[in-house]
Amino acid sequence: MHKPSKRRTPGWSGALLASLGMLAAAGVSIPIAADPAAAAAASTTVSGLPAINGAVAALGGATAYGDLSGLNAAPIVAASRTPTGRGYWLVASDGGVFAFGDARFFGSLGGHHLNSPIVGMAATPSGAGYWLVAEDGGLFTFGDATFAGSLAGRTLSAPIVGMARSATGQGYWFVGADGGVFSFGDAAFFGSTGGQRLNAHITGLTPTPVGDGYWLVANDGGVFSFGNAPYLGSMGGHPLAAPVVSMASTSTGQGYWLTGADGGVFTFGDARFAGSATATAAHPVVGMLPTPDNGGYELVTGQAPPPPPPLVTLGTFTATCYDLSGTTASGSPVSMSAVAVDPRVIPLGTPLFIQGVGLRYAEDTGGAIKGARIDVWLPSYGACMAFGVRTVQVWRVG
Q1: Which domain holds residue 126?
Q2: In this structure, is residue 10 part of a structural domain?
Q3: pLDDT band per the 50, 70, 90 thresholds, residue 46
Q4: What are 262-282's pLDDT values in tens digits?
Q5: Is 110 in the same domain as 156?
Q6: Is there a single domain that holds both residue 103 and residue 208?
Q7: Is residue 179 one of the residues assigned to a domain?
Q8: Do both 173 and 61 map to the same domain?
Q9: What pLDDT digit, counting tens, does each position of 122-146 carry?
Q10: 185 and 207 within one domain
């Protein structure tokens, strides 16, 4: 049993997080029905992606306007295209924003303390602003992006994994790993998979061009359609070389692409196959940006390890940090996988998904770790100082 480090300092208050918004009610999922005849598997590699974070591969009629080659940025987690199609933004997990082509920079969260990492981005219809959303549902606005609500401070049944804006830009949706959908402003709620048992967790939400429906995509390639979003097929039930990480709709709303972490592309409806791009496991594909004429797309690499499903909510915990050396109460050496718990609350050996931290295992205990408290191991005093004392949500995996 270790003695938790006393070298702890409070984290920042997170005043940049937007205020609490309204929570949309969960609906009923639409069953997946695989349609392999409608899918064009990306077995032909057209282009390889450099083994770097923030690499961009342009396929078909798309153009690469720049990437993060040579920059030591935090992992890229999402991207958004400008309305003209002649530029794009990349956003990192620390809220850093990188603008290329005719995309303008309106600000970022780089250098600021965040309670949770950024997981999604959406640009306004004018291209003069953008939103960033964090894993805890906190929302940040820049340029002409308007604030219509957030989930900051709200207990969630699963982490937020992405967002999308309404057609007017006066609203937006968040989606959780369990498929729970949260609508704000004029973004209408058409249903969700929240509360339903899924074979795989949800990785994104894509609205129809006019905003009268949306699709959810799971990391096994399953597709769920709501509202007027047409179901055109999925990869659910088919073996995949890598998990599906993103989905994009054609400008007609009569087709969509699914993209795998390995750069594989699958097409449905009127979505055209313009090629695929090989990506490394260290820097997987995290998003696709179709061109306005649907003639091509860019694939973007980063790092987006999905929360492992299924997730069972354990509640809100106070999280601190320790950097002691030695072995854990379980007998294993301390490492980045370890977290100290009260074994009366969380049994040792339990796999956990911790908001803002990721996947850890209950391997240690501590004299001061009682009740709803956890102690996360990090490798240095400086890292623990930066971590501070946080209020986090904790889920049991499995």
Answers
A1: 36-301
A2: no
A3: low
A4: 999 999 999 999 999 988 888
A5: yes
A6: yes
A7: yes
A8: yes
A9: 999 999 999 999 999 999 999 999 9
A10: yes
Read off the pLDDT of residues 202-219 as tens digits, 9 standing for 90 and up: 999 999 999 999 999 999
Count of structural domains within the chain:
2
340 and 204 inside one domain: no
* CATH (domain of 244): 2.130.10.10
Cα separation, 143 vs 278, in Å, equals: 35
CATH classification at residue 362: 2.40.40.10
